[in-house]
């Protein structure tokens, strides 16, 4: 049998992998030891890394130092959440102030509740806010609110969108969960999600209004909500086509279906002016926003739902939203501090840095005629590689 010759790509991967293993012996040991008491040796399955993750010993500003002493520049930034870097003096001071004033107070409101909500009202133009402990909690309760408001059971989710790990949305998270062009059944991400539950989530396509209309016709007055990221960030970076979000909102309004815009990845990382231009917010905006991680600049877990007065009126008589740590003093003190710090001019600086990176990556792609495109919005950016011969000018679909 003829020898299989490795491709250039495989050779680079093997070389880098060998180098990684050589430089991370302590991480390898720690990972092996941790696996004895922690399934998979990681805290969240999104931390899986081949052949094992590196363990962080220290972090400062834009650098992290792993337990082997490797000094690394962090371009990941906690999924874009660590907006101002590690140990930022302003954030450390704010954290100390909250502790000095309030201690770690849970289960009772503090003045930070008013401060944090006022900032969000102004920033996101929805009049009412409730706070949670994660993006997952926010999308879970936003869907519950929508189901309660219309007494309907179905929810439409966009294929390949990610909205957290609860049963209603942990379906069809990856493009490729089905064959290209086949019908879109709701595909659970993992075992433990009963089919009776995943069947309540209908899978539509981003930038394809007809795929939403199809369900509205098939299940009249049974669909409570459409949940969507205004820019899909789970699968490269897919921006909405002109008019898509506006038409989606208008369609849903006519059919009394709640529109939930999930901004868990977008909030703070991307200034709203870059997002809101995709629909006419003055006359017709989404009914609910869900926010999360970026709200506190990675200082603590947090989530939030913004809502119109119609949804707020359901709480607490018809729908109860609760949680011991919801709106705890530390989280809301940090939300207030981070949001005050993330001024428009600072967010513009982040955008400028993104553009700087984007332009240089683009120049490299162009120079070497690579089958790839690079996109950015706010502090987020993405490089998408194509199979040679399948290059596109931009990505507007995820398959
Ligand atoms: C758009 C979106 N929604 C919801 C979530 C869930 O947030 P969390 O991980 O805080 O539960 C995420 C997490 O990445 C997200 O990107």
UniProtKB/TrEMBL annotation:
<dbReference type="GO" id="GO:0030170">
    <property type="term" value="F:pyridoxal phosphate binding"/>
</dbReference>
<keyword id="KW-0663">Pyridoxal phosphate</keyword>
<protein>
    <recommendedName>
        <fullName>Glutamate-1-semialdehyde 2,1-aminomutase</fullName>
    </recommendedName>
</protein>
<dbReference type="InterPro" id="IPR015422">
    <property type="entry name" value="PyrdxlP-dep_Trfase_small"/>
</dbReference>
<comment type="similarity">
    <text>Belongs to the class-III pyridoxal-phosphate-dependent aminotransferase family.</text>
</comment>
<dbReference type="InterPro" id="IPR005814">
    <property type="entry name" value="Aminotrans_3"/>
</dbReference>
<dbReference type="GO" id="GO:0008483">
    <property type="term" value="F:transaminase activity"/>
</dbReference>
<dbReference type="InterPro" id="IPR015421">
    <property type="entry name" value="PyrdxlP-dep_Trfase_major"/>
</dbReference>
<dbReference type="Pfam" id="PF00202">
    <property type="entry name" value="Aminotran_3"/>
</dbReference>
<dbReference type="InterPro" id="IPR015424">
    <property type="entry name" value="PyrdxlP-dep_Trfase"/>
</dbReference>
């Amino acid at each position: 049998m003829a020898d299989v010759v490795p491709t250039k790509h495989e050779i680079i991967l093997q070389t880098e992998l060998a180098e990684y293993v050589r430089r991370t012996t302590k991480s390898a040991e720690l990972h092996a030891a941790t696996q004895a008491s922690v399934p998979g040796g990681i805290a969240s399955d999104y931390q899986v890394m081949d052949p094992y993750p590196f363990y962080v010993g220290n972090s400062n500003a834009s650098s992290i130092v792993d337990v082997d002493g490797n000094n690394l520049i962090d371009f990941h930034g906690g999924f874009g959440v660590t907006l101002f870097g590690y140990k930022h003096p302003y954030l450390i001071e704010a954290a100390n102030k909250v502790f000095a004033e309030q201690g770690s107070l849970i289960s009772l409101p503090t003045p930070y509740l008013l401060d944090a909500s006022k900032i969000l009202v102004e920033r996101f133009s929805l009049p009412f806010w409730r706070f949670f402990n994660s993006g997952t909690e926010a999308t879970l309760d936003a869907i519950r609110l929508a189901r309660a408001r219309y007494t309907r059971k179905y929810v439409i989710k966009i294929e390949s969108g990610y909205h957290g790990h609860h049963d209603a949305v942990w379906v069809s998270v990856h493009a490729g969960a089905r064959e290209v062009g086949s019908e879109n059944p709701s595909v659970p991400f993992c075992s433990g999600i009963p089919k009776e539950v995943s069947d309540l989530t209908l899978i539509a396509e981003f930038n394809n209004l007809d795929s939403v209309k199809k369900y509205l016709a098939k299940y009249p007055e049974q669909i409570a909500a459409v949940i969507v990221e205004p820019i899909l960030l789970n699968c490269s970076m897919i921006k909405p086509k002109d008019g898509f979000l506006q038409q989606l909102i208008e369609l849903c309004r006519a059919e009394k279906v709640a529109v939930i815009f999930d901004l868990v990845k977008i909030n703070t990382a991307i200034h709203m002016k870059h997002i809101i231009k995709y629909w006419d917010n003055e006359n017709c905006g989404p009914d609910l926003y869900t926010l999360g991680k970026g709200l506190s600049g990675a200082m603590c877990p947090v989530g939030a739902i913004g809502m119109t007065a119609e949804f707020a009126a359901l709480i607490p008589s018809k729908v109860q939203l609760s949680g011991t740590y919801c709106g705890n003093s530390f989280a809301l003190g940090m939300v207030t501090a981070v949001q005050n710090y993330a001024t428009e001019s600072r967010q513009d600086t982040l955008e400028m840095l993104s553009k700087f990176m984007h332009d240089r990556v683009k120049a490299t792609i162009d120079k070497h005629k690579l089958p790839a495109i690079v996109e950015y919005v706010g502090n987020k950016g993405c490089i998408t590689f194509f199979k040679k011969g399948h290059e596109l000018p931009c990505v507007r679909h995820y398959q």
